[in-house]
């Protein structure tokens, strides 16, 4: 099980990047619009993939603000510098368990509560998943002009909450929190809340937070399986529209490579956890360590004290089994006892090369015999190189956890 696919990102639309507000709006709504300043028509009706289009402006805004084409042409006319920021775009994912109507409700509620009530004009569209991408990836593009509008027209100055270095972070955080809450409410209406014995709504509600924060919150509510997943997962970085487009055309990109590398490391972590759980079962455990802790919390009625201790106990159990695994699969010989291939150990200068080679061969044979016994006893195939990789990965994660605990203190 992977962490929830919460995503909410801000992107400026700027003339310095060769962008047009009219063209951007036409593309996002898969429509046909004319840019009066360029005397050019942008027609993206054949693009498709748009489930719903929503354009909104404050109730007292002039008539031009109520029409998509007229509104964004007004933006082009007003933002007349060669490096003007024309608009801000927010790209956000929906919970995949929702239907078309629920996605529409979320978008309308967000636009009304966060933007039009505060005086801003918005054009938004819900896009369906790309045929060559994840079939669950319904998402929206929300274009916002960062000048407030009233009955007299657009404000003389831009609203700095969108672009100011000190304010835009808080603005984005507030948007993420609202988007997460709206999604969680719809999931609860689908019966995926705690009152129905499910955690999906609360996972989405806190999905905008860091993985470590999500792990702590999941532990507090007794969702220890998800807490463990968050604790050991590395956050991925958004690839971006341009890189995704290039990747789909068969061109590798740096962002795409970084994303794949992160996914590979996460897959390795998942393999590690599965091997740990299998070993725990063979050593007399009753299932996954995190499941044991979750079951115990439920048996005790989910008391706060038991739940609050959950994550610590879970990690302790997993780390304990990891130590056992390390002893099983990576024999803790010293360098002299179990040298690396081709390594010459100068532990005693008086020894001849033949004696040193004989000792190295003996140590290697003993290690193989030990592994053979463990393989026969526990039914687990030993791959020394893989287990050494696992050990190094585990040590790195433990250093990261220790570093995080140090900051928390």
Note down, in words, how this protein is organized.
With 409 residues, the protein is an alpha+beta fold. It folds into 2 domains: 8-208, BirA Bifunctional Protein, domain 2 (2-Layer Sandwich), CATH 3.30.930.30; 221-329, no CATH class. 50% of the residues lie in helices and 11% in strands. The longest helix has 29 residues, at 254-282. The chain starts with 7 loop residues before the first strand and ends with a helix. Residues 296-308 and 321-347 have low confidence and may be disordered. Keywords: Conjugation. Residues 19-249 form the MobA/MobL protein domain. InterPro entries: MobA_MobL (IPR005053). It comes from Methylovulum psychrotolerans.
- Encode the helix/strand succession as letters: EHEEEHEHEEEEHHHHHHHHHHH
Helix amount:
40-55%
Label the structural class: alpha+beta
Number of domains: 2
Fraction of residues in β-strands:
5-15%
Widest sheet, order of strands: 1-5-7-6-4
Give the CATH class of the largest domain: Alpha Beta
Counting H and I runs of at least 4 residues, what is the number of helices?
Answer: 14
**Name of the CATH architecture of the largest domain:** 2-Layer Sandwich
Distance between the termini: 30 Å
Tell me the CATH topology of the largest domain: BirA Bifunctional Protein, domain 2
Mean pLDDT: 78
Described by the principal axes of the CA atoms, the overall outline is elongated
As a whole number of angstroms, the C-alpha radius of gyration is 28 Å
DSSP, total strands: 9
Note poorly predicted spans.
Answer: 296-308, 321-347
Largest sheet, in brief, is: 5 strands, antiparallel
Family: Belongs to the MobA/MobL family.
Protein name: Mobilization protein A
Keywords: Conjugation
